[in-house]
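User: Structure please.
Assistant: Input sequence and predicted structure:
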Amino acid sequence: MPKLRNTIINEILQNLKNGDFCVEDFEIKFPDDSSTLASITFVAYPKYCFEISEEHNGFLAVASAMAGNVKKGLQTIEQPGEYKNFEKRNHESIDSCISRISHWLKNIREDLLFSKHSAQGEVDELTENLRKQINENVKNPESFFDEKEKEAIKNKLDELQEKVRELEKRFNFPESETKKVEAAIEKCKNDVNVYPKGVWYKTAGNKVINALKGVLKTKEGREALLEMMKKLLN
C-alpha cells in the first residue's frame, strides 16, 4: 500500500492534467517501502522526472529526530528545474510539494519548445549568412559612410527597434531582454559615425544578434526579427 493517502494521490494525478500533457504521458509510482513518496517520469523523455520524498534536512532535523521527534522534512527533486537541469527544494507541507508539479510541467514544455540546440543553431546559421552577405555586398568596406548613407542606416535601425517592440507585445518577450536589444541598436547608431563600412556591418550584426538570442524563442519570432536584420544589407 502506498504511503500517501488516496486523496493526496488524486491531487497529484489531477495536477498532471494541464492542457499540455495528460496522466498517460507519465510513468507514476507511489512506493510503500522507501523515503520516496511519489515518483513521476515523462515517458517520452525519461530524463524529465519529478520526485517527492521524505528526508531529514539539516542539523535541526537530525537533532529533532535524536530527541525523539521523527517527523521528516519534505523535498522535491525536479528535472528540469527553474534554471538548472536538476534542482532540489525543501518544503514544509505536501501541498507545497504538489504545487511544484505545474512549474515542472511548464519547464518541460519550455525545454521541448525552446530547445537551446534548435534556437542556437538557427541564430548561428543566420550569423554566418550575414557575414557572407556582408563580404559579398558591402562595397568599399574600408570607406566611411556619407551623411545620406548614415541617415538610411539609422532609419533601418529605427524600423528594427519598432519591430522588436511589436514582437515584445506579441510574443511576451521579457522586458529586460528587449532593453538589451534596444541598447545594442542604439550603440550601432552611434558606431555608424565612427567605423568604416566593413567594420560597422560586422560589429553591428554581432551586437544585435547576440542581444536577440535572449528573445529568439519561437520560430515565427526568429523569422520576423531576423528578416529585419537582413534588410540592413539592402
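The mean pLDDT is 80.
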